[in-house]
């Protein structure tokens, strides 16, 4: 197959992946402000799209990690070929669409890494992948970043609730809390997350396109993405974001967590800070992982929350399987592509057929801004925060139990007092009787000693003796 045609085909598929990445991760930025009513869904999606577009131009460090770090470079350029990159992208795209169809929270970033790694290992060998870069800039940040973001979100939530707590200065009773200002602050914090998403996720596609240009000797080894590549990727992810990704939003934000403005602000700020710092360092993070860690941390920061470890385990398993599952699909596509032009055409036809099937299958239950539920809330299911009705019911039960305990305590006190009074009365009566005897006014009662009866003879025996 003509090399130029292959490069064009890979670039087109990469931009399509960027598009799916946009609608797959829309809710990571806008889930909580939509849930709290800080911003309308359509406005939130449009704002996220614009900020994704802007964020894509702010940094290229993550792109360099993909284009010149993950796949080893040889004496004549990188080891991987445009055909293998095409196979890896096919694995990432198909996994993205399958998880989108079923509303499963997954990482588009890890799907991309898995597809590329699977194709490279099958087509070249394990030595084509730089395992040190994979560990230090992809796997390790995937584990550490959500924990850090969750810890920061927990502290921020506790701080926000502590600062805004209101009590009556005289009685010390809790007053109505004034935290409505956080709802407006969420517009800023969620916008920051959307901007950060553009700085990290859009760059991964830039890195892939740069990688294929280098592998085809159309760009120098070690160089960063060209300006037209940055612009194309920015536009693709922005368009994908604007489509909304409502099906994912419905799964992850189903109102299972009672998100409050202060909690949402803390989660979004923590997410944005973690992603921006990682983009600066060239760490290829999963926005889904970081946003989920922040939601869990902010939920734990609220009083009365409990952790559902089983739900956390299920979500973690979904994340864990994303990279190897995409790698398997990428490896299968690479095996087919190894047949030559015929194999590439088979990959393209099968992939296009799967994409069309998923699209038409998804139309059976259409999801849009009218019936979508936010994406990140599925993770919020892992932290249970009692609703107002639950809190009122628990408070009523506590009051009933307290009154019952007070009644029981009062009865116990009365019973003990009556017992003590009876004992005191008996003692006074005994003392009065002793006093009367001592003064001679009352004769002591005569006590007649009991005399034991003499044993009687056995009458039956005597009768027997007197009988002739």
How would you summarize this macromolecular structure in one to three sentences?
The chain is an all-alpha fold. Helices cover 71% and strands 2% of the residues.
Kindly name the structural category: mainly alpha
Give the CA-CA distance, first to last residue.
147 Å
The low-confidence parts are 251-257, 369-378, 461-468
* Helix and strand pattern: HHHHEEHHHHHHHHEHHHEHH
Report strand %. Answer: under 5%
Q: What's the number of extended β-strand segments?
A: 4
Rg from C-alpha positions?
Answer: 38 Å
Compute the average pLDDT: 75
How would you portray this structure in words?
This protein is mainly alpha-helical and 468 residues long. Helix content is 71%, strand content 2%. It is built from 17 helices and four strands. A two-stranded antiparallel ribbon has the order 1-2. A two-stranded antiparallel ribbon has the order 3-4.
Question: Can you lay out the helices and strands and say which pair or pack?
Answer:
Layout (H helix, E strand, L loop, with lengths): L2 H22 L1 H10 L5 H15 L5 H10 L2 E2 L2 E2 L3 H20 L6 H16 L7 H33 L17 H35 L11 H16 L3 H7 L8 H21 L5 H14 L5 E2 L1 H29 L3 H22 L14 H4 L2 E2 L3 H51 L20 H7 L3
Helix pairs in contact: 1-5, 1-8, 1-9, 2-3, 2-8, 3-8, 3-9, 4-8, 5-6, 5-13, 5-14, 6-13, 7-11, 7-12, 8-9, 8-11, 11-12, 13-14
Keywords:
single chain, 468 residues, mainly alpha, two-stranded antiparallel ribbon, 17 helices, 4 strands, elongated
